[in-house]
């Protein structure tokens, strides 16, 4: 990569303008002083709802704008193997980016590639030892390094190898062995695929098909994690240079038929950074996808509790078979006698918004509990001695609270360190960036567990008629709840489905 970071930034901005990009407001792309890489800053005051810059659709790096697809897919000889690559919006953009990157100076997007990262702190790139620091957090289950490698090996490598003339190694990629065989090895393909996949994860946008009558588009814009998402993905130059910091967002991308407009959502003072909104992500997910965290995302931290752990805590000895029998009977009561397959039972519970493979505990607030209603309903269902006619309410009888306590105790044990140990490690300092971020993530999750614990201690005090204890115990945690929220489980027979239907009909009025 030729030139200093500043020269590459300037070359990129010149390229963008020559490709139809229009800078409408006083902004500057520059290296941030806070360690967040490049960022966009206001160099003059900006009003709310100003168009900051516009990127034409033709400048977006995506399958539609690259000639790769037409070179690989011939109408006369349909190749299923090749077509399958283009059926997944993720894989499609990965292949297009590998191709355009390997074109070097022949690619339209060369100055753009010159400012994109080639190193990442996202969890896909952490060593086993580094990941060990996150033990206890379910984020480890979401990285999927092995399955991603397998996917690349099985569906990407063979396809790219079928087109050696399109995917040739760039001389500098191999240093002194540059003159050797230009065909990419399997490992080189996989390394490139990870690099492009991770860039897409942190930089790309879902491209909406919008007409000018509907310029609002999607709520978030950044790529969704959903594998089944069919919206094509694209790299939108400059729009992806905005950093993010939770509630500090002050700009947003709007997709129109003619182009992509970044607009201010608040007034911005000269010297301030422009922030996009990456969504209300817990820090574990922010780290996994974007490779950084800030304190401002701590409010979104969650702790996942697996379905089977709730079953364990509710029954102690409850076998999965027994649970299935209960769920099955429940299903028969409500759904009719023909639904016997497990998947259908799960689908039914899912339809009621009740079944999930895991439930999120979150920071409680004056208006919300640490425990989702779905989890409470599930616990109450598991505790009933007989199959109910209707789903139970999300009440908190003393037995419910006892189960919640067991859930929290078991979950806390999954972390090898204590909350106080983590606090001390952070206080002592001297940690590498990755270790520090991992400790902050696991500490944040333990704080959610602690707050959930304090919340049920408050419930317990209340159900025993010691309301005053709750006020004392929970002061400072902000988890004092309104009296009507404290349901002790009476009236278990009200249907959750009915309640939801009632709510939505209320809303529709
Ligand atoms: C969409 S890009 C933003 C542009 C990026 N800073 C660059 O130099 O290319 C997202 C990446 O920027 C970095 N980033 C974004 N917001 C950040 C923040 N508040 N603090 C630290 N790094 C941040 C992370 O590395 C993230 O993966």
TrEMBL record:
Record-annotated SET domain positions: 25-279
Gene3D superfamilies in UniProt: Rubisco LSMT, substrate-binding domain, set domain protein methyltransferase, domain 1
GO cellular component assignments: nucleus
Keywords: Methyltransferase, S-adenosyl-L-methionine, Transferase
InterPro entries, A to Z: Rubisco_LSMT_subst-bd, Rubisco_LSMT_subst-bd_sf, SET_dom, SET_dom_sf, SETD3_SETD6_MTase, SETD6_SET
GO BP, sorted A to Z: methylation
UniProt region (Disordered), positions on chain: 481-509
CDD domains in alphabetical order: SET_SETD6
UniProt GO MF annotations: protein-lysine N-methyltransferase activity
PANTHER family for this protein: N-LYSINE METHYLTRANSFERASE SETD6 (PTHR13271:SF34), UNCHARACTERIZED PUTATIVE METHYLTRANSFERASE (PTHR13271)
Name this protein carries in UniProt: SET domain-containing protein
Lineage: Eukaryota, Fungi, Dikarya, Ascomycota, Pezizomycotina
């Amino acid at each position: 990569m030729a030139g200093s970071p500043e020269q590459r930034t300037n070359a990129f901005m010149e390229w963008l303008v020559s490709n139809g990009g229009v800078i409408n407001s006083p902004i500057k792309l520059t290296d941030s002083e806070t360690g967040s890489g490049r960022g966009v800053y206001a160099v003059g005051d900006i009003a709310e709802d100003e168009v900051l810059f516009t990127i034409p659709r033709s400048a977006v790096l995506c399958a539609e704008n690259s000639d790769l697809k037409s070179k690989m897919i011939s109408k006369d000889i349909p190749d299923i193997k090749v077509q399958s690559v283009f059926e997944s919006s993720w894989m499609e953009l990965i292949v297009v980016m590998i191709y355009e990157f390997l074109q070097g100076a022949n690619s339209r997007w060369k100055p753009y590639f010159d400012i994109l990262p080639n190193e990442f702190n996202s969890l896909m790139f952490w060593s086993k030892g580094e990941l060990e620091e996150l033990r206890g957090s379910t984020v480890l289950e979401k990285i999927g390094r092995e399955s991603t490698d397998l996917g690349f090996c099985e569906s990407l490598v063979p396809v790219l190898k079928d087109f050696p003339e399109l995917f040739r190694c760039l001389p500098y990629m191999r240093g002194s062995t540059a003159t050797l065989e230009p065909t990419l090895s399997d490992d080189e393909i996989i390394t490139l695929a990870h690099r492009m996949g991770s860039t897409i994860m942190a930089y790309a946008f879902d491209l909406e098909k919008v007409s000018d009558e509907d310029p609002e588009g999607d709520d978030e814009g950044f790529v969704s994690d959903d594998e089944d998402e069919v919206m094509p993905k694209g790299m939108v130059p400059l729009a992806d240079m905005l950093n993010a910091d939770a509630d500090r967002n002050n700009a947003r991308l709007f997709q129109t038929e003619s182009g992509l407009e970044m607009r201010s959502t608040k007034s911005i003072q000269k010297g301030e950074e422009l922030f996009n909104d990456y969504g209300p992500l817990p820090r574990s997910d922010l780290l996994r996808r974007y490779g950084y965290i800030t304190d401002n995302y701590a409010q979104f931290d969650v702790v996942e509790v697996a379905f089977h752990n709730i079953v364990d805590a509710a029954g102690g000895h409850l076998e999965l078979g027994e649970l299935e029998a209960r769920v099955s009977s429940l299903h028969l009561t409500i759904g009719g006698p023909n639904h016997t397959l497990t998947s259908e039972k799960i689908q039914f519970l899912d339809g009621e918004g009740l079944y999930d493979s895991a439930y999120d505990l979150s920071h409680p607030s004056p208006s919300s509990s640490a425990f989702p209603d779905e989890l409470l309903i599930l616990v109450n269902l598991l505790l009933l001695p007989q199959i109910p006619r209707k789903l139970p309410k999300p009440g908190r009888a003393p037995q419910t609270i006892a189960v919640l306590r067991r859930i929290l105790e078991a979950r806390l044990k999954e972390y090898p360190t204590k909350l106080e140990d983590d606090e001390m490690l952070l206080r002592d300092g001297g940690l590498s960036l990755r270790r520090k971020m991992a400790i902050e993530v696991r500490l944040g999750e333990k704080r959610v567990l602690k707050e959930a614990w304090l919340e049920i201690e408050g419930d317990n005090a209340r159900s025993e008629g010691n309301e005053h204890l709750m006020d004392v115990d929970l002061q400072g945690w902000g988890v004092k709840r309104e009296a009507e929220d404290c349901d002790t489980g009476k009236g278990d027979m009200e249907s959750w489905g009915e309640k939801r239907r009632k709510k939505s009909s209320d809303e529709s009025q």
